[in-house]
């Protein structure tokens, strides 16, 4: 971590229903039957069964970029530019020579997208999940979009609990943040809900407890990776270390994800 490019799994979360703000902006700008995806970058593809929502930074600027015929993505401009270089998106004849040549439809702050309903591949929440705000999202990392797995990510859990507690303050509907958190991975030290357990043990009360959260993140990540065992999905019963790459590859093969380096 930290040295050299990071290999992320870029997941494609299809928009099912826009927030009212973006519905107005989008009208007439893209085909009615076009597909649009939010594209979070994750290091833990084996946890995608537990997605309960997807985070954007409310103040971060996102673009809707044309990927190919009738297909668009929502990411930061920086990420779209990286993706262009990695050859995931744009045909060679239209390869952009600068960020200004990216096929941008419109830009809007993350706050405009909040409340958008999306389909998250592999998630047990097949009814769809919502775009929600997270202050801690960095515009300078990944795609600026972070899918949320509160069972295994302390940051995601702490943020989701805060959103539930203060739904009015954040201007969201409580039910958008109120999805069941399913156990996915069993670990010897933290049981089957690693992130909620660590958040309690380290007495983390809000996403502002950044030092404890950094510690919880380290502990959750190494415990999950080295000692975790899947308790759901196709590889139920098998160690995380052995199945992580298989799950990633099958997401690539189904077209639900692609590799993304940052
Ligand atoms: B991970 P690294 Cl279950 N800003 O995915 C803030 N966080 C970001 C981000 C951004 N721009 N882009 C990606 N991330 C998050 C799952 C997960 C993640 C679990 C547990 C731990 C975990 C579900 N959220 O990450 O700093 C994404 O969240 C802890 C390492 O680039 C991504 O993987 O090394 C991870 O941080 C990438 O972190």
Automatic annotation (TrEMBL):
Full protein: residues contained: 291 to 552 of 1111
Designated name of the protein: leucine--tRNA ligase
Record family assignment: Belongs to the class-I aminoacyl-tRNA synthetase family.
Superkingdom of origin: Eukaryota
């Amino acid at each position: 971590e930290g040295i050299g490019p990071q290999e992320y799994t870029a997941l494609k979360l299809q928009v099912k229903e826009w927030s009212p703000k973006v519905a107005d902006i989008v009208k007439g700008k893209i085909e009615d039957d076009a597909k649009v995806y939010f594209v979070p970058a994750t290091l833990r593809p084996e946890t995608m069964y537990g997605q309960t929502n997807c985070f954007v930074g409310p103040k971060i600027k996102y673009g809707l970029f044309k990927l190919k015929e009738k297909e668009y993505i929502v990411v930061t401009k920086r990420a779209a530019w990286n993706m262009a270089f990695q050859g995931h998106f744009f045909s060679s004849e239209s390869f952009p020579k600068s960020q200004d040549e990216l096929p941008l439809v419109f830009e809007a702050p993350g706050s405009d997208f909040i409340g958008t309903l999306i389909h998250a591949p592999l998630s047990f929440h097949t009814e769809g999940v919502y775009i929600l705000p997270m202050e801690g999202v960095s515009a300078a990392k990944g795609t600026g979009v972070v899918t949320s797995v509160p069972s295994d990510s302390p940051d995601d859990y702490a943020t989701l609990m805060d959103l539930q507690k203060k739904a009015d303050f954040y201007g969201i509907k409580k039910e958008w943040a109120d999805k069941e958190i399913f156990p996915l991975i069993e670990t010897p030290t933290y049981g089957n809900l690693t992130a909620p357990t660590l958040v309690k043990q380290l007495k983390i009360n809000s996403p502002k407890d950044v030092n404890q959260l950094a510690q919880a993140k380290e502990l959750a990540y190494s415990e999950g990776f080295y000692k975790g065992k899947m308790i759901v999905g196709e590889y139920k019963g098998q160690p995380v270390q052995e199945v992580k790459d298989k799950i990633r590859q099958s997401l690539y093969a189904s077209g639900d994800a692609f590799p993304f380096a940052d």
